[in-house]
Structure prediction request, 137 residues.
Amino acid sequence: MIANNEVGRIFIDYGSSANILFGEAYDQMQLGDVSLEKVNTSLYGFRRRNRAPTRKTCLLKFLVVDVPSAYNVILGRPTLNTFQAVISTYHMKIKFHTPGGVGEAQGDPLQSRRCYVETIRKGQKRGVDKASRPDPS
Prediction:
């Protein structure tokens, strides 16, 4: 749940130092710009070039980036650390502390594969070298 919206297609990236909310997903939440702050920074290594986020949210900090993506959200180290999350890529599961005990979220292998294929397809349109895209299986 993000801002009382059920959000799917979330990529857990413990190598990312930022939480990303893609602009299309933000716009679909119909939150308006009231909860956003202007941000003057760049994301390096994002789609193999600099990309300036256009806005950021306030509760959990998400940088809102207006680029097409197979995913709606990338959860990076800031949120994973805040939630004290434990991730199992093998089980496609994340566990985290909640006031009532341990919470967990289970990934969907079929949806994961669809996102992977869409990401590859978008990479081919941009001319990304095939050798730089390892298969996740």
In short: The beta strands are 10-12, 20-22, 43-46, 49-51, 55-56, 63-65, 73-75, 86-88, 93-98, 101-106. Residues 109-126 form the longest helix (18 residues). The longest strand covers residues 93-98. The radius of gyration is 15 Å.
